[in-house]
Fold each of these.
Amino acid sequence: MAAAALALLAPRLDPDIASSAHAQALGVAPVRIDIPSIGAHATVVPLGEEDDGTMQAPVDPDTVGWYELCTGIGTPGNALLDGHVDWAGKLRAFGLLRALQPGDSVRLTDAEGNVLEYSVKWIQLYDADTAPLDEIFDPTPDEEITLITCGGAFDPSIHMYVSRWIVRAVRTA
């Protein structure tokens, strides 16, 4: 079983900041993601944090999680979504995320039924221990999304991948 996409990556948020961020979160919750170029189609579920302050990962490996303590979609900011690459020997929601290329389309449907389209700007594999957290998690002035999944080598001693694929996309329509 693949471990949580962000167990080693997400920064621990101060509870007061997290509560304030949640209260001030803008945008609308995403409820579905479609990435035609890699055949990814999944329900999006809201996620918070684990007890240690890291971002939760979806319980169902065929769903994608939206970090509800950050920006929603349809407004300037950086909406964070994570999904499993594999589980029980099968590719899952973000199983082929590493195959995305700049310009590929990512479609998110929001809770109001609107479909928002994003274009991949970049994709990068980072070591989970040294990833540039500010670049990945900080808000942006544009409407952007960040997709996150496990990648790189799998360490069987800890049942976890040691790297993370990070994809940044900007809204186009």
Amino acid sequence: MAVSAFQDYPLADRDREWDGGAAEKRIRAWAGAEDEPNAKYRDAHVWYDSENKDNFTAYKLLIADVIQGKVCAVPRGIMAAGNVMQGSRGGVDLPKQDIDRVKSHLAKYYKENGRGPSLGPRIARLSRLEGAGLAVPSQSRPAAAGSGSEVEP
């Protein structure tokens, strides 16, 4: 199991819509990973199962898209990944030892270029609650995009 190295991709416009399925297709084409994942494909995701790295299903938390031929981190994709880490859409099943590193990876984008509030305090609070056995992933229906319930970068 592994957290991808932080790539410091340039941020797309904050108002850019996020369509994870469409972004996945563009990232595959850009990376030349039509048949199987490769390092470029991996780097567009925050986490992957290194024991199954030849399977597309091993890659989680896509945060990037190809915009005008260039890979960019998309703020709404980062928000979606942050929300999933906090239990949205049923959360994500990651090894406990990787959770803080994934949150740190996402927090770097939240802080980048002074855009919006830092996710750091929310991540620290969530980590403390999880450590105390108090944080339970949300089982409620996912919020609609743009509903105001997303974590803002």
